[in-house]
Amino acid sequence: MKVAFVSLGCAKNLVNTEQMMALVRDAGHLVTGEAEGADVAVLNTCGFIEPAKNEAIDHILALAALKEAGKLGKILVAGCLVQRYQDQITAELPEVDGILGTGSYTDILTALEALSAGEAPRLLGDIHHTQEDGARMVSTPPYTAYLKIAEGCDNHCAYCIIPSLRGRYRSRSMESLLAEAKGLADSGVRELVVVAQDITRYGTDRYHKRMLGALLTELCKLDFHWIRLHYLYPDELDDDLIDVLAREPKILRYIDIPLQHCNDAILKAMNRRSTKAEILALLDKLRRRLPGLVLRTSIICGLPGEGEAEFEELCEFLRQVKIERAGIFQFSPEEGTPAAVMPNQVDAEIAARRVERLAELQSRIMDAYNEGCLGETMEVLCEGFDPQAGCYAGRTFADSADIDGRVYFTAAGLVPTGSFVPVRITGVSDGDLTGEIES
To answer: Is the pLDDT score of 439 beyond 80?
Structure first.
């Protein structure tokens, strides 16, 4: 069979797609990224918030149009949207031929066999017990790859549906992770991105203690040049881990800490475990222990109970701490979450205006950071020649792929894709940096 895969949403979802692709490939089928002409299109969806749900439905409808035109055989929809809306998808989208929940990624071959036999597979396995080890067909550029160290989440933030879609927190074994990481390093991966819904909790379920520092220490012995971390929760980020971050030069001075807010009442309503004072103390400690640190966070505007005073406090917080990278999101009242039924819901238009204000404030903070890079020579991971820009493009330690900015730079000769080169920063352009290779 010719099986096309499309992956939506986060990097963790992409890893699940890569696992399915490997199973399909190893069973002798042809794996492709083009739905047109495929026997089956597998769409791995996100169902986290409203925009993600809309994107997934748009993709389903686009695949349905191909199927209607006779250019696609069957449609198999997998992932978080399926897990969340399994009955609605079956009832309201008759074009979908089968569904695969987040507990059944490794049942992909069973689903394909059922589709081939003219059946309508509906595989919804146990989301608390999944197979996370095994081969992957890595789909990122050859120089960078993700390492998902755990599945699920135990944080139960009031606005978040993920624990209901992905199950309890489950750390993978140290042995399986190091074996997978060695395979990635041996294949030429230079940038390893360590991901999970919460990497700071790694080991607490399997080994009954925090083991992220020990895992990172072992990963640093492998032949990676950069090791990047997503996402570290503030209340789990202890001194032992900070010691490892400070000691290991391969671990980038780039930390993604989802803070979400700073007002104590809003944090409590969110079911977050940190206070504003604790957050400020942690950020101060990180800045002192890790010189040159670039912080990334996510902020939610418009949670129920957020009035003008709480919002102004949030604005002042961002001005004070000057987090270099921040994603600003409007609160989405997701059914099934405590926050969706809280009193004092914020008017959507007011919340949208607050997002705009914060985004403008954050853009000035980012511009100030970029201007501070002018004249510096920075190590850049070259991602190839960009014909539109007419020069090479790449990323510094401060820029995660598909999330942050880029560096556009000129060079006298050929610059191999995936190489690390010194670039002198000479300009700033729409949030990106420009420069030239330093000879």
So the answer is: no
Number of helices and strands in the chain (H, E): 13, 19
Exposed, middle or buried, 21 (CB in 10 Å: 0-12/13-18/19+)? buried
Indicate the SS3 state at residue 338. helix
Q: Which residue in 317, 199, 334 sits closest to 264, CA to CA?
A: 317
Strands 98-100 and 74-79: parallel
**Cα 314 from chain centre:** 24
Tell which residue, 310, 329, 313, has the closest CA to residue 321: 313
User: Would you state the structure tokens that stand for residue 345, as one six-digit string?
Assistant: 């819901």
Give Cβ neighbours of residue 164 (< 8 Å, ≥ 6 apart).
Answer: 84, 336
Burial pattern 160-180, b for ≥16 Cβ within 10 A else e, equals bbbbbbbbebbbbebeebbeb
- Alpha-carbon distance of 251 to 194, in angstroms, equals 10
Evaluate if pTM is beyond 0.90. Answer: yes
- Report, in angstroms and rounded to the nearest whole number, the Rg of the chain calculated over CA atoms: 22
Tokens 């689903």 correspond to 111
How many angstroms separate the first and last alpha carbons of the chain? 51
Strand partners, 5: 42
Evaluate whether 152 touches 163 at the Cβ level (below 8 Å): yes
- Going by C-alpha positions, the residue among 188, 192, 185 that lies closest to residue 216 is 192
- What residues does 101 pair with on adjacent strands? none
Q: 67-78 pLDDT, tens per residue?
A: 999 999 999 999
The residue count of the chain comes to 439
Residue 318 to residue 394: CA distance in whole angstroms: 28
CB atoms within 10 A of CB 211: 17
| One-letter amino acid for residue 182 of the chain | K
Mean confidence (pLDDT) of the chain = 96
Q: Which residues pair with 391 in a beta bridge?
A: 386
- The DSSP output letter for 173 is P
Looking at residue 224, the DSSP 8-state letter turns out to be -
What is the C-alpha to C-alpha distance for residues 358 and 328, in angstroms, rounded to an integer?
A: 7
Mean pLDDT (whole number) for 387-406: 96
The edge-to-edge listing of strands for the beta sheet with 294-301 is 144-148, 191-195, 226-230, 251-256, 294-301, 325-330
Phi (first) and psi of residue 312, to 5 degrees? -65, -35
- Alpha carbon distance 74, 390 (integer Å): 41
How far is 379 from 78, CA to CA, in rounded Å? Answer: 39
